[in-house]
Design a protein that fits this description.
2 copies of one chain form a homodimer. With 213 residues, chain A is an all-alpha fold. Chain A contains 10 helices and no strands. Chains A and B meet through helix 7, helix 8, helix 9 and helix 10 of A and helix 7, helix 8, helix 9 and helix 10 of B. Chain B binds a DNA duplex (30 and 30 nucleotides) through helix 3.
Chain lengths: 213, 213
DNA sequence: CAAAATAATGACCATAAAGTCATTTATCAT
DNA sequence: ATGATAAATGACTTTATGGTCATTATTTTG
């Protein structure tokens, strides 16, 4: 009856290569749930299946782990989209819709929401991280949107409005969806589908009824 | 030369009535800047011109101060607007614009941004606070928007679109403006004016050029 | 103008969590 | 097999800060 499983794994394993990624993943989730300051490295360790001391073999301190966690996730959000934009055969409206869909997909089906949650709630206090995310992702996204909208205007599909100068505003409802799920979803849940449908409708058509002029 | 100013105020003052408000104000700002977990009660005390122990005469613990700080700010955001809505003489479009203007004003000229900053970044981890804010502010705001949009649809000013079911989506660009100023404004500043102009244009007109359809 | 009442202080305690490091042990090279 | 290497451990130290409380000083009041 005493715990003596015969084929038990050795309690300790050396896995130099896998560890950092595992610790980063655990850290990312803890940081997203608790915030940077309230995250305990011991919890991160537990989640990664190691002991606190092990973290320090791979990361100098909490800040460095935090940075590494962010960096690990930033990469591919807009990359997929980038190819799409240049090669897209259809109308700019269809293209933009495809981009929106992609963003909602990533936001609700991958760890992007974890990253955004961290950026939104900690970005202000960690300029390094905010800047990194800005240069790696946001600025690219903005450039992409600028291009799509400019093309749409050129082709006569879109009006030449202030969105040409502030293109990220067409993503605002997606940001709101993120903030909403972070804070109020518990009391007033909104399905991603509904948000996306309303988003697309509003951004293309606006509220106003198509009156005479 | 030794510090013996003749008319110096007594170093200690008893101000039972003013203290709580001062501590709350100091707390609010510290919480907004550092976040709940990273805020040090000693800093709050210093900012309020008292000593840490004094805080505990008025608040049981850090959580209670936090709650008090939130509650102190929630009150009047939509109240001003509420009167406006019922009495407004003009079109629904003008009414909505007035509401938007009011929100941007409050967001950038009062402490509303401080509150929103806290709600956005800490709401997820403090359900009590999020729920309080939701019931006190958000739900009222939503009801108001619902009313305005329904009226607009009725009068033929607005299309009957998904925004009727998800009215807060028309505020999304304002939320985005808030998130933006919290995180990326440092690297890529956007004036509130520009944001608001783009917001209004997008929400009423949408992107699409008014083609024959 | 005492003397009681209590706001404010600052020194203190308790605890939690970051960070360190000598020891243990899995893995690798010979 | 055996010794060398270094990954992993866990017990330890340090520090920070939330929270307490006896003492001090300012009002109040009788």
């Amino acid at each position: 009856m005493t715990d003596e499983t015969p084929n038990a794994e050795p309690p300790r394993k050396r896995r130099k290569d896998e560890r950092p990624a595992e610790i980063i993943e655990a850290g990312l989730k803890e940081f997203a749930e608790k915030g940077f300051a309230a995250t305990r490295l011991e919890d991160v360790a537990a989640r990664a299946g190691v002991v606190k001391g092990t973290i320090y073999r791979y990361f100098a301190d909490k800040d460095e782990l935090f940075e590494a966690a962010i960096r690990s996730q930033v990469a591919p959000v807009f990359d997929h989209v980038e190819a799409l934009v240049d090669a897209f055969p259809g109308s700019c409206e269809e293209l933009l819709k495809a981009v929106f869909r992609r963003i909602y997909e990533q936001m609700f089906e991958t760890d992007l929401n974890v990253l955004m949650r961290i950026i939104i709630s900690e970005g202000g206090r960690h300029p390094k991280i905010a800047e990194y995310y800005y240069t790696q992702s946001i600025s690219k996204g903005r450039a992409l949107l600028t291009k799509i909208i400019a093309r749409g205007v050129e082709r006569g599909e879109f009006r030449a409005g202030p969105a040409s100068d502030l293109p990220m505003i067409v993503l605002a409802p997606a940001i709101m969806a993120m903030v909403w799920t972070m804070t109020f979803d518990r009391f007033d849940p909104v399905a991603a589908e509904r948000f996306m449908a309303a988003h697309i409708d509003l951004v293309f058509n606006g509220l106003r009824a198509n009156a005479a002029h």
